[in-house]
């Protein structure tokens, strides 16, 4: 159970629908983003990028670019020899150069950087650079790539960049003995996070100290500092990373990119302030891509719908390099393989994983990473079992779902799930939807040629990773300082990008200290002042960052109680904090305000108790005991498919979410709405397409379709609260709604098209796909 002090008052802020402290500035345009940073004398950078997916660079002609007015410097790999090497690339003897050396490996790979007085001048010069290529055959298909066909992406390295196998003991026997089997190939397509604010970097040298300052739009200020320091060959105390307001990140800003090295290196080498901001086409081409996965699945099950065993060969196309600092292909497959059994007691699992290099953009993190893929496969399996046996998909879920008495439950891949509301969330969602009645209506409507479908997606969300896998930080840090006048300043290593941490972290601290929310300022995003932390990602900020906030708040409370008890001549355990005052329990008139206590702590220091350190500052770190904290829930989508046009409309959407103890339901609901919007985009709109030469053909938002207000349904959201065993009882929730929603949508479309014997197996679901399926069914 979560921590509740014996004499604690009911929390005033925690759990309340507190409006967000940051919204006034965000909604009035008063925030400062990376592109608002002005450094006197700043130059701008534009990149010459590869127009080929695979080629040798014969020559680079720079004369005309050099002569362009306003051009200051030009860098190629010769001038900027920096590179990144993520663990997987290093293991394979591969380096990702900041600027391509003599081979280009994906369209959009940076080759030349032009530094000019304005972006206009830089872009003009980019147009004048000529590159002689010797084309090579591109590697574009996963299955052939695995066989090193048609060639190797990196000459000295096999294309298979990662392989692993896993099997529960007794798998084969259990699989063979089952009375029913089915096979399916599930496929998800390339997409990317598309934050409103594009990515970029500005860098400048302090002429006095020689220190480098980087302004970045990023999720992990300290992570970026460490990575850049290594790649640039400087010490971490010579580098300051400042992250201003971040306009969306979604995982793609958890990465460091080759362009960042060029910008920082140029600032160091030429002692110039420089900036680069990507345009939307650069984003779609070169922000890490995601979800390029194939699952070849075999399932063994019983006549009542009970699933006995799943075999899955998972493949992911990593692109030309393992994205730095972590490979999305490995993340999507390895982690998917651990949650493929979802919220079900499926006893046997066998997985084979292959990740391959290709001549495409590197695959990296996008909100939910493996989750949306695993859910799409797992919930697709459940609905196929139901259809094969002519059972209601709800019944198959009830038969397989982990019963409450089995928690904590270890799944077939060895993942230990926290207690949750697995069954309750399903039943609650069905009740909210009026499921049985809707099923009856569906039948009637079908008779009139109207095809509605109900898609259920019960999910697990791995959150708050606290194992040092892939070098990630398993803890989070918070400092609290009460200033000499009694106001409270808290600083975090988190890297928020709109999630509202300034509100949620302040809520937790305000309740511990008994102060008003408005008296707390929450800082983050500057490595010179924030405590070292892992940043934001993997749905960790609430449960781990929140735990750090609570621990720091408690440590400060303890300090205030010690000081007040001395001044009030009362027992420490009798001192309570409320309304900005420390008072003796039951005697509110015997009190000192926090402001008075701060005055004693900083200036009237002769009144301090013996051994009480001058000032009021604490630092706390929190690392959960569990390696992973699992949230859960159920989504149900109701869609209508137009059999004439293949168009899909979402009619209704229900979410039951359990992220443990809620800090702020308003913020949780915002996260859910955004996640469902992105999940629907994932399921039927967004797709990065490649042609047979490895050219990306979706390089504008006219080709890459994002969901807009008219496609995102009004959703009904309910919360269940099963506290985690961690500090505060919080579980993560930043990704669950994007994890669950593509599967809910796909299952709804499959359900609508049951009369045409069609089931969605590839995302995104397009009208073409639907019309082809209807035609096939009518022909047969
Ligand atoms: S894809 Mo996120 O930064 O966990």
TrEMBL record:
Q: Which UniProt keywords apply?
A: Molybdenum, Oxidoreductase
Organism domain of life? Bacteria
User: Cross-referenced SUPFAM superfamilies, in alphabetical order?
Assistant: CO dehydrogenase molybdoprotein N-domain-like, Molybdenum cofactor-binding domain
Gene3D superfamilies under this entry?
Aldehyde oxidase/xanthine dehydrogenase, a/b hammerhead (3.90.1170.50), Aldehyde oxidase/xanthine dehydrogenase, molybdopterin binding domain (3.30.365.10)
InterPro entries recorded for this chain? Ald_Oxase/Xan_DH_a/b, Ald_Oxase/Xan_DH_a/b_sf, Ald_Oxase/xanthine_DH-like, AldOxase/xan_DH_MoCoBD1, AldOxase/xan_DH_MoCoBD2, AldOxase/xan_DH_Mopterin-bd_sf
Aldehyde oxidase/xanthine dehydrogenase a/b hammerhead domain boundaries: 28-137
Molecular functions (GO terms): iron ion binding; oxidoreductase activity
Asked if the record carries the keyword Oxidoreductase, the reply is yes
SMART domains membership: Ald_Xan_dh_C (SM01008)
Which Pfam families does the UniProt record give?
Ald_Xan_dh_C (PF01315), MoCoBD_1 (PF02738), MoCoBD_2 (PF20256)
Q: What PANTHER family does this protein's entry cite? A: ALDEHYDE OXIDASE 1-RELATED, XANTHINE DEHYDROGENASE
Record's protein name:
Xanthine dehydrogenase
- Please give the organism: Ferroacidibacillus organovorans
